[in-house]
Design brief:
Blueprint: H1 2-17, E1 30-36, H2 40-43, E2 44-45, E3 48-49, H3 61-79, E4 84-90, H4 98-102, E5 110-115, H5 123-133, E6 137-139, E7 154-156, H6 161-175, E8 180-186, H7 189-204, E9 211-217, H8 223-227, E10 235-241, H9 245-257, E11 262-266, E12 282-287, H10 296-309, H11 315-334, E13 355-359, E14 367-372, E15 376-381, E16 384-387
Helix pairs in contact: 3-11, 6-7
């Protein structure tokens, strides 16, 4: 716990001085604001850690690792003498409230905003700020659009649910064109929507429709309820039709216990980064991030992270690094025209991004927001990841 306390104290200092890369005398630095939920006010009273030396809330970990990724990217940019200034805000702090941000003089000359959201009600206020300043806001995590509309400055790296479902349908149609596909769904509006979208795509397909069977399960479903839908004589193709992570983890756990059945489980985009899923089962899920950690850059960053923190980096670390480094380099390349060049493949770190406008209707000229439509399918077998598309 002592190591984590050192990290947190370092964060407090960084928030106070607003970390910046090296500046030159001839080029005015471009200002970038980063927002992530690190809950510093919940853990500190001033500079004093108030939760005790043996207590560290897990709720802080995703935002902390995103911050660590941001700062490691800042270090990389520093070595290149990139003329940027980086401001970091704890999105859970009162100082990050919309009314405070609107009057913050530091945010008057922004060139880029990067955010890791974990609450839907935080999305629109920051998107409105980006719209008012007319600077791109890169949303690196879920939730998605958060009620944003008519805002061409809001950029979602994580696509909407229907974009994921369309990609999942194409994957199933390409990989299992003649197999029975079982959709285990949860009761509720989201389950209704996922089922409707898959059935609608099945009706509209130009090829042979999937053999899609839907089974509704309660929150407390049993092993026998799942097992009776499976066939021990063939490969079973199962789709989890719920965004609820608990439901998904339970479904994967139950399927993993049925060793006499061969099962391939296709999961939801909310499974990206889940550690407690995919044991004893062949699992595939869609994600905009290609984080298999087998490339040289991932291995180098992981080694540096291990040396600094004596721990293994989470996906949030890599998302922070990629968002910071990739889009800062594009910002420096295009200056005031980044918004029209977000899909440039220069400075690629782990994933390609295909960022396209989303409009309310076919004939609408108004962009509601921009969305990354490039998705990868990651296969997880025995805890090891590899990209399959």
């Amino acid at each position: 716990m002592q190591l984590l306390r050192v990290i947190l104290f370092a964060m407090v200092a960084a928030c106070a001085v607003k970390p910046a890369t090296a500046q030159t005398d001839t080029v005015k630095p471009l200002k970038i604001a980063v927002f992530a939920p690190v809950y510093l006010d919940s853990a500190f009273a001033g500079d004093v850690y108030k939760l005790g030396k043996n207590t560290f809330p897990k709720i802080m970990l995703p935002g902390l690792d995103f911050y660590n990724g941001i700062m490691m990217a800042v270090d990389s940019l520093n070595t290149e003498n990139a003329p940027v200034e980086v401001l970091f805000y704890d999105s859970k702090s009162p100082q990050a409230a919309a009314t405070t941000l609107d009057n913050d003089p530091e945010l008057q000359q922004l060139s880029l905003i990067i955010a890791a959201f974990n609450s839907r009600n935080e999305v629109k206020p920051l998107a409105d700020l980006a719209m008012a300043r007319q600077v791109p806001l890169i949303s690196a995590t879920y939730p998605n659009e958060g009620g944003v509309s008519n805002n061409p400055w809001f950029v979602m790296l994580n696509p909407r649910l229907n974009t994921h479902i369309e990609a999942i349908y194409r994957y199933l149609h390409r990989t299992y064109p003649t197999d029975q596909v079982i959709l285990f769904r949860k009761k509720g509006n989201t389950g209704d929507l996922i089922q409707y979208m898959l059935n609608d795509l099945n009706r509209k397909t130009a090829g042979l429709p999937l053999k899609l069977k839907t089974v509704e399960l309660s929150d407390t479903f049993s092993v026998s309820q799942v097992m009776r839908q499976l066939d021990s004589t063939r490969q079973n193709i199962v789709v989890c039709g719920a965004l609820d992570e608990v439901f998904g983890v339970n479904l994967a756990r139950v399927l993993g216990t049925l060793r006499s059945y061969r099962v391939s489980l296709v999961g939801m985009p909310t499974w990206d980064g889940l550690k407690d899923i995919g044991r004893n089962i062949d699992l595939v899920y869609s994600t905009p991030y290609n984080l298999t950690r087998t490339d040289k850059l991932s291995q180098r960053l992981s080694a540096k992270y291990q040396a600094l923190y004596a721990a293994r980096p989470s996906d949030m670390f890599f998302k922070g690094y990629e968002s910071m480094y990739h889009f800062t380099k594009l910002l420096l390349k295009y200056r005031g025209d980044l918004i029209n060049n977000l899909s440039d493949k220069d400075y690629k770190q782990f994933a390609d991004f295909d960022i396209q406008p989303v409009r309310s209707g076919k004939d609408s000229l108004q962009t509601d927001y921009l969305e990354n439509r490039k998705l990868y399918f990651i296969r997880k077998v025995d805890g090891k990841l590899k990209s399959v598309s």
